[in-house]
Amino acid sequence: MNVLSDLLEIQSTSGDESSMREFLLNYINQRKDSWNVCPEIHFGTQLHDCLLLKFGNPRGAVFAHMDTIGFMSRYQNQLIPIGGPEVENGTYLIGEDKFGPIRCRVFEEDGNLFHDFGRKITPGTRLSFEQNVKISENFIQAAYLDNRLGIYNALNLCENLEDGWVVFSTFEEHGGGSVPAILEFIQKTSPIHFALISDITWITDGVLHDEGVVVSIRDKHIPRKKFLDKIIDLAAESNIPYQLEIESSGSSDGREVQFSPYFIDWCFIGAPEDNVHSPKEKVSLSDLDAMLKMYVYLMARL
Amino acid sequence: MNVLSDLLEIQSTSGDESSMREFLLNYINQRKDSWNVCPEIHFGTQLHDCLLLKFGNPRGAVFAHMDTIGFMSRYQNQLIPIGGPEVENGTYLIGEDKFGPIRCRVFEEDGNLFHDFGRKITPGTRLSFEQNVKISENFIQAAYLDNRLGIYNALNLCENLEDGWVVFSTFEEHGGGSVPAILEFIQKTSPIHFALISDITWITDGVLHDEGVVVSIRDKHIPRKKFLDKIIDLAAESNIPYQLEIESSGSSDGREVQFSPYFIDWCFIGAPEDNVHSPKEKVSLSDLDAMLKMYVYLMARL
Amino acid sequence: MNVLSDLLEIQSTSGDESSMREFLLNYINQRKDSWNVCPEIHFGTQLHDCLLLKFGNPRGAVFAHMDTIGFMSRYQNQLIPIGGPEVENGTYLIGEDKFGPIRCRVFEEDGNLFHDFGRKITPGTRLSFEQNVKISENFIQAAYLDNRLGIYNALNLCENLEDGWVVFSTFEEHGGGSVPAILEFIQKTSPIHFALISDITWITDGVLHDEGVVVSIRDKHIPRKKFLDKIIDLAAESNIPYQLEIESSGSSDGREVQFSPYFIDWCFIGAPEDNVHSPKEKVSLSDLDAMLKMYVYLMARL
């Protein structure tokens, strides 16, 4: 899991994913020749900060978002959220502006956010949680497991994938916006009819640690039943541990597949986490293992 | 109204419209040779569960959504809504899971929904209101008049339509998502410049039973005034009873036409109902009759 | 500023922009031969009420919305809002229905809006604030500076623009809907990779009168950092007064660029106003001057 350690140290709040894109591009270029199939790599200004890999003759795509939630400095010592971070008073944030590196604490008062840095932070500076990775026998705990684990899963899939797109998207935590353009590019280049969303979901009263990778029947949005049935049948026959999610809230890159101008089925599949959008996101290693295996299994058969 | 009786008995919550699509396809195949113009029929995996009929050389399209509101079983004995059903405690729901048919009652407590079925229902099972159709001299009352009447109106229009698309869409009650892909298909196949939304609206303090079909000047969204003026002028000269709706809430498939990447005008035209999204939706037969006639009149002249 | 006086007298609530489109088309046809580059003019039924000018070989586009907030008559003496107008009881509204011109006052009671006109107003009639323009040495105050000043800025830019689209859009104040179709047209005709939103923003605790044109780092939506950095670098070297906005709410035509199926960067750039969406919108003339200069500077260099 060396690459995961690296992934967890990179800052990339929504709209500022270029460092993560750069890291992934280097990693992929170093590894791709050892993969079962060497992918076509699509990136550059015309794709903004997104990164797309095309393996063989794709029938479907796997989406892993590169961005994280975070904070932006406003005027004076104010902060405003990027996406929906959970704030516990005194949590350390890090970032950098033109005057140098920043390490400060965040505080909430009457619904407003403040930092305690010793000097003014340039307005518009992006901050994110200071990283603190803890790995025990059964769990990993860190900031931004959502969605560093989804990226890690996508990279793992690359090793043996024969046919399919692997997509690293942007802006997911803050309303989205890159998936429509990614889909337009994919449908013109080598079209697909399904999408799997490689992302991390939430522990709830029906989704538990160590019960396997989550196949989501719905969150705020509902995928098409015929596609869900096919996925669930395959999951059942795979002998890989999985659990079903049925929630009325939450969303993902799947939302933008649902509303796209193409008939593309989608399903969210990922490990569940505790302490969502906090610096202490926590995922069971056995659920992560099931996630890795399920993607390999499904992408070979869908 | 034999076909309407059949339509009212089919379960098809948002995302699970395949039975309704199947029924309509059979019905259309049986009838199409008796219609004034025999349409091209478009359906299949590449269109998901949607169904599109192309008559002659279309200038516009009529959209009727096939899905209904309903419920999905969550964990334990919980339910979560599909779309926005009105819940009265003790209302009977029906459905089916792998263990057999289901008939149970729904209860709301502290904003959460529960069922009283004697066994666990497989998580992710879709339930909908038990049907109870009542037809009197002046009214029809049943579950899902929204949008079985809109489908019925579209089928009636098929008998004499010369030019136009008739579209049976999915997902309308739960945020939409099929209209963007339908429009992409239509604009590539035989493009249109207007859309009429064949759907059922609400009785309000200005929209009343027996005042005729509703031409909607606006709901949450506002169509373009130039197109509305044309529709209202035609409605006025038609001698078919109609009333105008001006509301600040409510939405329809028209929303996704408004936000589509094509310059397509749209207008919602349909009979109004009482007891919206309950098992006792109620529509005046004279308003339904005006709806049928208005669509025939408008589609020949727009 | 003669043309601005004319712009301020034209009624054009969202969905009813044809008078403004007509005025602009006439103005442009009279002036275009005196401009540095004579643009291609795109308009007509196939573009609804939008108006697009293509200068030279565009790399980007400037968007100015033509619509304003306002009111629509409902049933009896009720009104409902178009967009989000600020209502002060007793404010005068004007409009016209088939029975003649209308001048009445608006009142709010328990969250509902009413008018006091002496007769019934035809349901669906559009009303907007009576205009009252006041120009002092340092400020302009009037209804609809948002977005008459954005249009004025776009027209000023036309005089010297060499390469770029100048776009007059519709529906911005009421949820949007024309930008997706405009972008589809632009990308098929002469594609772009950036968009500047020529619109008016808000005075806040960090955005002040007389501090220069606002370059918005974010509102509810966040543009891509790489593009913002380029804009801010250019603004800094321009010596034109500018200030940075970092807000968590507010939106513009930029929203629809963000969610479009094209990789198009965007940034909101405009003067700030007090008394937003009231009949007394107030903008500093020096900020307006900086806005005019900044667009000329940026469009030559981006």
TrEMBL record, chains A, B, C:
Name of the protein this chain belongs to: M20/M25/M40 family metallo-hydrolase
Key words of the record: Hydrolase, Metal-binding
Gene3D superfamilies in the record: Zn peptidases
Keyword Metal-binding among UniProt keywords: yes
GO molecular function annotations of the record: hydrolase activity; metal ion binding
Domain of life of the source: Bacteria
Transmembrane region(s): none
Source species: Arthrospiribacter ruber
